[in-house]
Amino acid sequence: MSRIYGYDFVMKTTIDIPDDLFRLAKARASLSGISLRQFVTDTLRAQLEHEDKRAQSTDPPWMKGFGGLADLGSETARIRDLIADEFESIESEHDS
Length: 96
Known about the structure:
Number of helices: 3
Number of strands: 2
Number of domains: 1
Oligomer: single chain
Mean pLDDT: 83
Largest sheet: 2 strands, antiparallel
Structural class: mainly alpha
Order of helices and strands: EEHHH
Low-confidence stretches: none
Shape: elongated
């Protein structure tokens, strides 16, 4: 909303949206306990903020998946050690 001298100004407009989208938005607004106007405003604001954050990202979109499993390094090491222990056990049984 624009503010001039302490007053809030709201732009009224008309948009055409598919019936199924309208019904879904109205139902979601109702379930959230807010008006359709507030639901549309909140949803539009969230989408625009999301796009702004995405545009500010220095990495291209395809880079988002890289490093996603970095926190599994210790788990990978633990599994590798378990496998090595099992192979040692098998080799010692085979040598006996």
